[in-house]
């Protein structure tokens, strides 16, 4: 509501680029004292072993059991882009596939198409068929019933193509520790914010990020 009212008053239609801040860091709390303090995934009852040594973003489900030893800094640049495809600089079409989610990642991904974030201003679009897609966005744990659907969607895509794992479940199996998805881009979070998603997508298509 605040964003809407601000837009009406000032003519602001989309979010500005988030301010750069330091990545999630625990050096001040942890460096040199981890062993003697005994703070580990086991002691904190971390359900995904996302602690030690350091914070493992790809496994974290944001349960907050590690607080206050680990605290977020607000950095949105958490995505890891393993392969950049510059042929997608002008237009980048995405086909989302839900292989077994709770719905949270779907909600955040849908938000990047809202007027507040507007993915199209970055040359990014959704498509209704993998035959027109440049990237496959995978969300959720890889359930048995979706393996064949995932394979068929991937094979239907033209070359070149990217696979993007969105959220802890797709990247590491989450709390279920199931099959991991081999991806060109991994976007950590449970769920990742629209800022994190857009930044990773922009870098994957050859941009400098958001």
Automatic annotation (TrEMBL):
<protein>
    <submittedName>
        <fullName>NADH:ubiquinone oxidoreductase</fullName>
    </submittedName>
</protein>
<keyword id="KW-0830">Ubiquinone</keyword>
<keyword id="KW-0004">4Fe-4S</keyword>
<comment type="similarity">
    <text>Belongs to the complex I 20 kDa subunit family.</text>
</comment>
<dbReference type="GO" id="GO:0046872">
    <property type="term" value="F:metal ion binding"/>
</dbReference>
<dbReference type="InterPro" id="IPR006137">
    <property type="entry name" value="NADH_UbQ_OxRdtase-like_20kDa"/>
</dbReference>
<keyword id="KW-0411">Iron-sulfur</keyword>
<keyword id="KW-0408">Iron</keyword>
<dbReference type="GO" id="GO:0051539">
    <property type="term" value="F:4 iron, 4 sulfur cluster binding"/>
</dbReference>
<dbReference type="InterPro" id="IPR052375">
    <property type="entry name" value="Complex_I_20kDa-like"/>
</dbReference>
<feature type="domain" description="NADH:ubiquinone oxidoreductase-like 20kDa subunit">
    <location>
        <begin position="102"/>
        <end position="202"/>
    </location>
</feature>
<dbReference type="Pfam" id="PF01058">
    <property type="entry name" value="Oxidored_q6"/>
</dbReference>
<keyword id="KW-0479">Metal-binding</keyword>
């Amino acid at each position: 509501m605040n964003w809407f009212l601000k837009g009406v008053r000032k003519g602001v239609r989309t979010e500005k680029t988030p301010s750069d801040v330091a990545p999630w860091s625990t050096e001040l709390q942890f460096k040199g004292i981890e062993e003697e303090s005994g703070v580990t995934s086991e002691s904190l009852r971390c359900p995904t072993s996302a602690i030690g040594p350091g914070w493992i973003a790809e496994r974290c489900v944001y349960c907050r059991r590690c607080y206050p030893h680990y605290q977020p800094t607000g950095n949105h640049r958490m995505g890891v882009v393993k392969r950049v495809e510059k042929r997608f600089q002008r237009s980048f079409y995405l086909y989302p596939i839900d292989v077994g989610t709770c719905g949270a990642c779907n909600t955040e991904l849908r938000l990047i198409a809202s007027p507040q974030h507007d993915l199209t201003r970055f040359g990014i679009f959704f498509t209704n068929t993998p035959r027109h897609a440049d990237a496959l966005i995978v969300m959720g744990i890889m359930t048995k019933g979706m393996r064949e659907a995932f394979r068929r969607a991937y094979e239907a895509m033209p070359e070149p193509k990217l696979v993007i794992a969105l959220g802890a479940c797709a990247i590491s199996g989450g709390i279920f520790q199931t099959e991991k998805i081999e991806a060109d881009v991994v976007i950590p979070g449970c769920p990742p914010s629209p800022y994190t998603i857009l930044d990773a997508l922009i870098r994957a298509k050859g941009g400098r990020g958001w």
